[in-house]
Design a protein that fits this description.
By secondary structure, the protein is an alpha+beta fold. The protein contains twelve helices and 16 strands. The strands form three sheets. Strands 1, 2, 3, 4, 5, 6, 14, 15 and 16 form a nine-stranded mixed β-sheet that branches. One of its GO terms (molecular function) is metal ion binding.
Length: 420
C-alpha cells in the first residue's frame, strides 16, 4: 500500500465514458439504450467485460442488475455505488451512465492502491431506471418493493410486456423477486449523477451534495364536454373541454404558491384534443400532470388542491373529469451523516460546493428506503439532460468522482463508522 492519497484515473474514466457513449448512438447523436433493447444489451455486455478485465467479481441478479465486487466475502455488509446504463430514447452520454462508470473507476483505484478494507465494495448497474417498463425496476427489486402483479402488468408504450422482453433475453421476470437484499447486507449506498438542472452550472459550483430527493405523482386527466361545430355554437353555450384545461393550467402557479413549497414543481407535458379538428369544439381533452416535491405532506396537499380545482372548474363549465394515477413515488431524505461526510470531503479537496435537493427521481431514492444513502451532483452545462446536448466538463467529473471516492473509502475502511 502506498502513502500517496488515492485518486481516480481521469484518463481511464474518460476512455470509459467515450466508449460507452458510442454504444446505442443514433444518427441524431442521441443514445438509444432503452431497457432490454439491443443497445442496452450491448452496453451491458461492455460493462461486464470491463468489470472482468479489472479482475473484480461479476454478478448478475434476478432483476438483471449487474454488480462488480471488490474484496467480496459474502458476509460483511458492502459499500455500494450505483446508477444505471439505460437511457431515454435519444438520451445523452452521462445520465446514469456516469454514476456507474465512476463507481467502477473508484473500485479499480482502490484495488490498485491495495488499501485494506473492513467492508467490501460493489458497483451496480440498475435495470430500467428510465422507465421503459415503469422505471426504477432494478432498485425496487433490490429493495423488495416488487410484487408478482407489478411484474406481470408492466408494459412499454408499444404494449410489449416486461415478461416478454426479459424472456427474449432468456430471463424469467419473476426471478426479480429474488433480487431482494436484506437491509443489513448494505452498509451505505452512494450515487454520483449529473444535476440535470442549471443551479450548479449557473453558480459555477463543482459539487452538489443532495439533501433530499423529490417525490412525485403523475396523473392522466381527462376533461369531457360536448363536441360541437366551431361556427354555429355560441361561446356561452359551449362545453369546451380545452377551455377547462386552459383554466386549470392558469391556476397551477396559484396552487403551488398556496399549497406548495419552494421545491414544488407541476408540469402539463402532453395534451391530446378529441376529435382534434380545427373547426370543431373539442369534446374531450386528455393531458398529463406531473407534480413533484421533496416533502410527502406537501405532495399530499398539492394532490388535494389539484383535485379540488379540477372538480370546481368542471362543475362550473358543465364538464366531467376523471383521472388515473400513473405513478407515485415517495420523497426521501438523504442520510444526514453522509451529507456531512460528502460535504467534508468536498471541503478537504478545496472544492466549491453546496447542498441542494434533487428534482428528479433516482435509484438512490429507492435505496434510501433500505440503507443510508448519499448522493453527489456534478454540473450539467446549461442544465441540459435527456438529450444529445447533455454534457459536463471533465474537470467537474474528476472533482465529483474524487469526492465520492474519498467518502466511499472512508466508509469502507471504517473511518466513517460513527456517522449516523
Amino acid at each position: 500500500m502506498t502513502d500517496k492519497p488515492v485518486s481516480i484515473n481521469i484518463d481511464r474514466l474518460r476512455r470509459d465514458v467515450e466508449a460507452l457513449a458510442a454504444i446505442g448512438r443514433g444518427p441524431d447523436q442521441g443514445i438509444y439504450r432503452m431497457a432490454f433493447s439491443e443497445g442496452d444489451l450491448a452496453g451491458r455486455r461492455w460493462l461486464q467485460s470491463q468489470i472482468e478485465a479489472a479482475h473484480l467479481d461479476y454478478f448478475e441478479d434476478g432483476a438483471a442488475n449487474q454488480h462488480g465486487r471488490l474484496a467480496w466475502d459474502g458476509q460483511s455488509p458492502s459499500i455500494m455505488i450505483g446508477s444505471h446504463l439505460d437511457t431515454v430514447p435519444g438520451g445523452g452520454p452521462l445520465d446514469g451512465a456516469l454514476g456507474v462508470l465512476v463507481g467502477l473507476e473508484i473500485l479499480r483505484s482502490i484495488q490498485e492502491s491495495e488499501t485494506p478494507l473492513r467492508h467490501p465494495m460493489e458497483v451496480v448497474n440498475f435495470t430500467d431506471e428510465e422507465g421503459r417498463f415503469g422505471g426504477l425496476f432494478g432498485s425496487q427489486a433490490m429493495a423488495g418493493q416488487l410484487t408478482p402483479a407489478m411484474i406481470h402488468e408492466a408494459r412499454d408504450l408499444e404494449g410489449v410486456s416486461l415478461t416478454e422482453a426479459m424472456a427474449a433475453w432468456g430471463m424469467d421476470a419473476n426471478a426479480a423477486l429474488f433480487a431482494r437484499r436484506p437491509r443489513d447486507a448494505i452498509k451505505a449506498y452512494l450515487e454520483l449523477h449529473i444535476e440535470q438542472g442549471p443551479v450548479l452550472d449557473r453558480g459555477d459550483i463543482s459539487i452538489g451534495v443532495v439533501e433530499a430527493i423529490t417525490g412525485l405523482f403523475k396523473w392522466e386527466v381527462t376533461l369531457k364536454g360536448q363536441t360541437n361545430h366551431a361556427g354555429t355554437t355560441p361561446m356561452h353555450m359551449r362545453q369546451d373541454s380545452f377551455q377547462g384545461l386552459a383554466e386549470f393550467a392558469f391556476a397551477i402557479d396559484r396552487i403551488l404558491e398556496e399549497h406548495g413549497s419552494p421545491h414544488s414543481r407541476a408540469t402539463i407535458g402532453r395534451v391530446e384534443l378529441s376529435p382534434g379538428a380545427a373547426n370543431t369544439v373539442p369534446g374531450s381533452t386528455a393531458f398529463s400532470l406531473d407534480v413533484r416535491d421533496t416533502d410527502a405532506d406537501v405532495l399530499s396537499n398539492l394532490s388535494d388542491a389539484f383535485r379540488r380545482t379540477l372538480s370546481a372548474l368542471a362543475r362550473r363549465r358543465q364538464l366531467m373529469f376523471e383521472f388515473e394515477v400513473l405513478s407515485e413515488i415517495t420523497p426521501q431524505r438523504c442520510d444526514a451523516g453522509l451529507v456531512q461526510l460528502l460535504s467534508d470531503k468536498a471541503r478537504a479537496l478545496d472544492l466549491k460546493h453546496m447542498c441542494l435537493p434533487s428534482g428528479a427521481a433516482h435509484d438512490a431514492q429507492i435505496m434510501a428506503s433500505m440503507t443510508r444513502t448519499g448522493m453527489v451532483f456534478v454540473p450539467s452545462i446549461e442544465g441540459r439532460s435527456h438529450s444529445a446536448a447533455e454534457w459536463t466538463n471533465w474537470e467537474d467529473i474528476e472533482r465529483g468522482a474524487n469526492v465520492l471516492l474519498q467518502a466511499s473509502l472512508s466508509l469502507a475502511v471504517g473511518t466513517g463508522e460513527t456517522l449516523r
